[in-house]
Design a protein that fits this description.
- The protein is of the alpha/beta class.
- It has three domains: about 10-95, Rossmann fold; about 110-310, UDP-N-acetylmuramoyl-L-alanine:D-glutamate ligase (3-Layer(aba) Sandwich), CATH 3.40.1190.10; about 320-455, Mur ligase, C-terminal domain (Protein-Tyrosine Phosphatase, Chain A).
- It has 15 helices and 21 strands.
- The chain has helices at about 20-35, 45-55, 85-90, 100-105, 120-135, 200-210, 225-235, 285-295, 300-310, 340-350, 365-370, 370-375, 405-410, 425-435, 450-455; strands at about 10-15, 35-40, 55-60, 70-75, 95-100, 110-115, 140-150, 155, 160-165, 180-185, 215-220, 235-240, 250-255, 260-265, 270-280, 320-325, 330-335, 355-360, 385, 415-420, 440-445.
- The strands form three sheets. The protein has a ten-stranded mixed β-sheet with strand order 8-7-9-6-10-11-12-13-14-15, with helices on both faces. Strands 16-17-21-18-19-20 form a six-stranded mixed β-sheet, sandwiched between helices.
- Helix 5 (about 120-135) crosses helix 9 and helix 6 (about 200-210) packs parallel to helix 7.
- It is globular.
Length: about 450
């Protein structure tokens, strides 16, 4: 990178895809430092409007004319090489960096970088770690892939050597980071529009472990065999965690009627302290253990760890309570991979209820196609499933797969599934069905939450 972020304040930086949760955090961070910021996105959103209010020039739609008096262009991994703004930046000999390279450059200025990686759970784990490090007054810089109330958004600029961020594996992005501590929560097949197969994904996570310095730490969930293989090969210090195995374990587990766990933390078979979570589900015990491992490295007092985890209610869209309609509770969740969906439904099962109605919006054609069979096996706990059309995100519909095809496969498996083709149709149907003690779940990484908003008239 040709200029110093801390000195060249008069430079102007343009973000292609500025409305994304990670890109918007980087843009906002620069705005607080006094930089001139512009950016484009395919559609207007609350995020783009907020950035505009904070002083960013926002363009809706991608056009070469958006590149005006720009010194650096930052783009997301999802932006194709034929994007007109990418082409124009090259024509003007403007420096180009992808989001991961830019974030890595910012991380370089900190010593204690914590990169939270894994196929699932990154945002919740980063949220938990944010709460604990803030409670410990470490004053970290934080970048999280969701809206977090404790920092009033998705980023916080700290004044210390501590930096906490999610580390996404898509297109090997996290290999451009500089972690002192790396966390691998789990490894499953995903992003198969880029990766050849699961072995390719595992190879990339191993490369991630190799960028951690020898005096740094790799923390991993050892009951995931894919993670455990990498822990065994790591060249740095390692700490494993789990429920039935690991250096750090959770024992004496119980759940309250909201699905939140209480458990005892043990290290090397010695009981350390008890924790009660405010996030729901068994999977969040594992997310909490990853945070506890980092906290022990940083010598954070036990009572601070306990208080920080207790105060963490998770990021928005992670089993988030939206409201009630006709006695039914409405929950929104970001789950978009079969493993995540199963975890969400396992959590719902813990909570007392009569019926579970789920509205699922598949996310991207590639994921739906490559994990098609897995999607037919993760809805067994649902009393009725409403299946929406596939949310295209960064992709175009080439006829690869459809929600109707997935619906047929689910019905063939005996799942009570109905295809719906709009948020309004789903909401209208659920309003006729919902009654006391029912659970309504809107599930997906797209805009399925609009169904809840329509029901609740938000």
């Amino acid at each position: 990178m040709s200029f110093d972020l801390n000195k060249d304040i008069n430079k102007k930086i343009h973000f292609i895809g500025i409305g994304g949760i990670s890109m918007s955090g980087l843009a906002a961070l620069l705005l607080t430092k006094g930089y001139k910021v512009s950016g484009s996105d395919s559609k207007e959103s609350e995020i783009t409007n907020k950035l505009k209010d904070e002083g960013a020039e926002i363009y809706i739609g991608h056009n070469k004319d958006n590149i005006k008096n720009v010194d650096l262009v930052v783009y997301t991994a999802a932006i194709p090489s034929d994007n007109p703004e990418i082409i124009e930046a090259k024509n003007q000999n403007i420096e180009l960096l992808d989001r991961a390279e830019f974030l890595g450059f910012i991380m370089k200025g900190h010593k204690y970088n914590v990169a939270v990686a894994g196929t699932h759970g990154k945002t919740t784990s980063t949220s938990m770690l944010s709460h604990v490090t803030l409670k410990a007054n470490l004053d970290p810089t934080i970048l999280v892939g969701g809206e977090l109330d404790v920092i009033d958004g998705n980023f916080k600029i700290g004044d210390s050597e501590y930096f906490v961020t999610e580390a996404c594996e898509y297109k090997e992005s996290f290999l451009k980071f500089y972690p002192y501590i790396g966390i691998i929560l789990n490894i499953d097949a995903d992003h198969l529009d880029y990766y050849r197969d699961l072995n390719h994904i595992k190879e990339t996570f191993e490369k991630f472990s190799n960028i951690i310095p020898e005096d740094g730490y790799l923390i991993g969930y050892c009951e995931d065999e894919n993670v455990n293989e990498i822990l065994k090969k790591a060249k740095c210090n390692t700490i494993s965690y789990g429920i039935n195995a690991g250096d750090v374990r959770a024992t004496n587990i119980s759940f309250n009627n909201k699905g939140c766990a209480t458990f005892t933390v043990c290290k090397d078979e010695k009981e350390l302290f008890d924790v009660t979570l405010s996030t729901t589900g068994k999977h969040n015990i594992l997310n909490a253990l990853s945070t506890i491992c980092v906290s022990l490295i940083f010598d954070i007092p036990y009572n601070v760890i306990v208080e920080g985890l207790k105060e963490c209610k998770g990021a928005h869209k992670r089993f988030e309570y939206k409201g009630e309609f006709n006695g039914a509770t409405i929950i929104d969740d970001y789950a978009h991979h079969p493993v995540e969906i199963k975890a969400t439904l396992d959590t719902a099962e813990i909570i007392p209820h009569k019926n579970i109605y789920a509205v699922f919006q598949p996310h991207t054609y590639t994921r739906t196609k490559t994990l098609f069979n897995e999607f037919t096996t993760c809805f067994d706990d649902v009393d009725e499933l409403l299946l929406m059309d596939i949310y295209a995100a960064r992709e175009k519909d080439t006829g690869l797969v459809s929600s109707n095809q997935l619906g047929d496969a689910l019905r063939a498996k005996g799942i009570n599934c109905t295809n719906v083709h709009s948020h309004e149709e789903a909401a209208k149907y659920l309003k006729t069905k919902a009654s006391d003690n029912d659970l309504i779940l809107t599930i997906g990484a797209g805009d399925v939450v609009k169904v809840a908003d329509i029901i609740l008239k938000k």
